[in-house]
Amino acid sequence: MNLFSPIVSQLENGIHTAALKQKTHASNIANVDTPNYKAQKVSFKTNLDQHLQSNQLTAIRTNSQHLSFSNELANGLKVEINQSTQRQPNGNNVDIDVEMAEIAKNQLWYNALTERINGKFSSLRSVINDGK
């Protein structure tokens, strides 16, 4: 018997993703003055697009009106290095303003995920305590 719903697992994956994004942006900021450092970015879309192009995704359809997808993506996260730009004469391409904005956006996402998972556990606690 599974005590937690699949939503808790999805929220957990979201929190792991937010943590990886935070770590990546913090690394970019820490290396803002490092010569030839290239900014990194966490990408899910690239991996999803590769799976879609290779036609590896299939889903079990329980209703003829369901859309067909394909196998579940495990995590689908990839850290990519941006080689296409150079913002500073030393070869570094970290834009501190972009990184700070991304950290703020990621923090909002993380807070929303943790609030939601706290709500799930609060509901579970209420059921365990007979609604008290």
Summarize this structure briefly.
By secondary structure, this protein is mostly helical.
What does this structure look like?
This protein has 132 residues and is mainly alpha-helical. The protein has three helices and two strands. The protein has helices at residues 6-30, 45-53, 96-128, and strands spanning 40-43, 78-81. It has a two-stranded antiparallel ribbon. Helix 1 packs antiparallel against helix 3 (96-128). The model is unreliable at 68-74 (pLDDT under 50).
Provide key terms for this protein.
3 helices, two-stranded antiparallel sheet, 51% helix, 132 residues, 2 strands, mainly alpha, elongated
Q: Which segments are poorly predicted (pLDDT under 50) over 5 or more consecutive residues?
A: 68-74
Mean pLDDT comes to 79
The proportion of strand residues reads 5-15%
Sum up the overall morphology in one term.
elongated
In helices, the fraction of residues equals 40-55%
Order of helices and strands: HEHEH
Characterize the largest beta sheet: strand count, sense, and whether it forms a barrel: 2 strands, antiparallel
DSSP, total strands: 2
Query: Helical stretch count?
Result: 3
